[in-house]
Amino acid sequence: MTPLGLARSLGHDFNQPQLLTQALTHRSHGHPNNERLEFLGDSVLNLAVADQLYQRYPKLPEGDLSRLRASLVKEATLAEIALALNVGESLQLGEGELKSGGWRRPSVLADALEAIIGAVYVDSGYQAAERLVKRLYADRLETLDPKAVGKDAKSLLQEYLQAQKMDVPEYAVLATEGEAHCQTFRVECHIRKFKLRTEGEGTSRRAAEQLAAQAAYEQIIRQGKHDAAK
Predict the structure, then answer these.
(1) Which strand (E) or helix (H) includes residue 188?
(2) Any catalytic annotation for residue 62?
(3) Sheet harboring 170-177: ordered strands across?
C-alpha cells in the first residue's frame, strides 16, 4: 500500500504529505525517521483515549480508568490496529529490518502507528488527531468491558461461552510463514454454535490465538448489543 492509499484508509487528508512519509520511516532506514513523531503520538494517543474513557465511564475510579487505558494503548493493541490498516506494507525499513521481517514485528508496527497519530497532530492539530484515534478505536471502545480488564482474550471468550453453556472454541493453525527465527503464525478460531470463524496473525501461535479470540469475542459482543437494540 502506498502512503496515499494509507492516508485514505486513515481518513485524513494531509496538508504536509511528507509528515506521513516520515511517520512510516523506521530509524534503520535513515533520517528523518519516525522516532520524534512517535514520542508525540504516544502522548496524543494517551490523552485522546483517556478522554474517551472519562466520558464513557463517569462512575469508574481512577485506577480502573488507568487499567482500561493501558489495555487500549499497549503494544499488542497498537500492532493489531496497524496490521488491520496494512501499515507494514508502507513502512520504509533498512535492509537488516527488511530481512528480519520488521514490517510485521509488533514493536515496529506499534511505534509506526503512534508516529502516524503524531504526524496528524503536527499536520492539522489535536482535534484532527483525536478524530483519528476515535476512528481507530471505535469498535474496541464499543465492546470494551470494564470488568474484564486484565483478562486475556482467550480467557474472556472461554468464560463467556461456558456461561452460555456452549462448547469452548477450537483453534487451528492455518499457515506458518518465515524462517525458524522469525516466523508468523496464522490461526483460526472456530465457534460452532455461532458458525463463527475468525483469524489472527502473530509472531507466535499463542499471540495469533489471542488475536483470533479477541476478534471472535468482539463480534459476539457487538452482535449481542445489536440484537438487544432491535
Answers:
(1) strand 184-191
(2) no
(3) 170-177, 184-191, 196-202
* CB neighbour list of residue 217: distance below 8 Å, 6 or more residues apart: 143, 153, 156, 157, 160
Q: What 3-state DSSP class applies to 92?
A: strand
For residue 21, the tally of other CB atoms under 10 A from its CB is 16
Whether 209 is a known active-site residue: answer: no
Task: Return contacts of 190-198, CB within 8 angstroms, 24+ apart.
Answer: 191/161, 191/166, 191/216, 191/220, 192/167, 193/161, 193/164, 193/166, 193/167, 194/220, 196/220
Chain position carrying cell 497532530: 121
Residue pair 37/23 in contact by the 8 Å Cβ criterion: yes
pTM of the model: 0.69
User: pLDDT digit string (tens) for 14-26?
Assistant: 999 999 999 999 9
Helix (H) or strand (E) holding 184: strand 184-191
- Largest interatomic CA distance in the chain: 56
Given 114, 123, 130, 188, the catalytic residue: 114
pLDDT, one tens digit per residue, over 142-154 is 888 787 666 788 9
Instruction: Go through the chain and tell me how many residues it has.
Output: 230
Query: How far is 46 from 85, CA to CA, in rounded Å?
Result: 20
* Domains observed in the chain: 3-142 (1.10.1520.10), 153-229 (3.30.160.20)
Cell numbers at residue 197, please?
470463524
- The Cα–Cα gap between 211 and 204 comes to 11
